[in-house]
Design goal:
With about 300 residues, the chain is an alpha/beta fold. About 35% of the residues lie in helices and about 30% in strands. The chain has two domains: about 1-215, Rossmann fold; about 225-295, Alpha-Beta Plaits. Helix 3 (about 90-100) packs across helix 4 and helix 4 (about 105-120) packs across helix 5 (about 135-145).
Length: about 300
């Protein structure tokens, strides 16, 4: 488990992180989001022990990282943003070095290296120098070193940064596979990633938590939740727009000329698709397509952070 209580960090007169408190349990993947400058990376550095907070406590598996740093860090795997690696070292040598630094027993080290190499698919580049690798492979090496000592908690800062779509999918699958036995914090700006792998989301802005929710529940807070997209045969757009605006619970109706379709946004995210269907059929209009769209996390993200950014 990762426990954060009253975490605060100032840089001069600037409060980068202000009294953050949350906990991540085993089996939970927490998506940690925020606009640039919100305090995400500062928080990650304090949780991992790379930066000392001005106030507050971080515990990894119940161990205070400030008072017992070595013991606490032995329970944590950390992938920092822009993972610093020793470029002149071959991949296998680097992982062996990390294993020794992590005090992995020599009798166990070869097996642990083999396990993480298989997990992150590094077998083809084990003898190559890290400097010669693509950005995607370097990211995989960073993930491998975070997993090498099989920690119960992981902090991953932008784990798919620089990866192509196939590589991103592989990393997401890896996170899903290991999530059952670990507490994971995933700091990212890729909202699709949060929807794909996270069981919970925290959004921070100006160093403070503005929401803590499950992704599905958070999406329902979108101003466009349950929006209906409607396309009709042989209809005058202006006439149809006037008629559609009469439906109870409609907040707005917009005709999109390029797509030759209507976008109907409900009030308060209520479902209006049945009412739209009734209106269309009662007027004798012929439907090409009709669909209802759930809320999007990017809409919610903008709603929660736009006033300050």
């Amino acid at each position: 488990m990762i426990e954060v209580s009253g975490l605060t960090k100032r840089f001069g007169d600037t409060v980068a992180v202000n009294n953050l408190s949350f906990a991540v349990k085993q089996g939970e993947v927490l998506g940690f989001l925020g606009p640039n400058g919100a305090g995400k990376s500062t928080t990650m550095k304090m949780i991992s022990g790379f930066l000392t907070p001005d106030q507050g406590i971080v515990k990894i598996n119940g161990i205070d990282i400030e008072h017992e740093p070595i013991k606490a860090k032995s329970c944590l795997g950390y992938l920092p943003e822009g993972m610093p690696l020793y470029g002149d070292m071959p991949v296998h040598s680097f992982l062996a070095f990390v294993g020794r630094v992590r005090s992995i027993e020599p009798s166990d080290l070869a097996a642990r290296i083999a396990a993480v190499v298989e997990d992150v698919q590094l077998g083809d580049v084990l003898t190559e120098s890290i400097a010669s690798l693509s950005k995607g492979y370097k990211r995989r090496v960073g993930i491998a070193q975070a997993l090498l000592h099989d920690p119960p908690a992981l902090v991953l800062d932008e784990p798919t940064d620089g990866l192509d779509p196939n590589q991103k999918d592989q990393v997401r699958s890896l996170i899903e596979n290991i999530a059952r036995s670990k507490a994971i914090i995933l700091s990212t700006h890729i909202l699709d990633e949060v929807e794909a792998v996270c069981s919970r989301v925290i959004i921070i802005d100006r160093g403070e938590i503005v929401v803590d929710s499950e992704p599905r529940s958070l999406a329902t807070r979108s101003s466009k939740h349950n929006t209906v997209h409607l396309s009709l045969f042989e209809i005058e757009p202006e006439t149809a727009t006037l008629q559609l605006r009469q439906i109870e619970g409609i907040r707005s109706v917009q005709y999109k000329e390029k797509e030759n379709s209507f976008e109907l946004i409900p009030m308060d995210g209520q479902s209006i698709v049945h009412s739209v269907w009734q209106k269309v059929t009662s007027n004798g209009w012929k439907i090409k397509t009709i669909s209802e769209q759930g809320g999007r996390l990017d809409d919610v993200f903008r709603q929660l952070t736009r006033n300050e950014n």
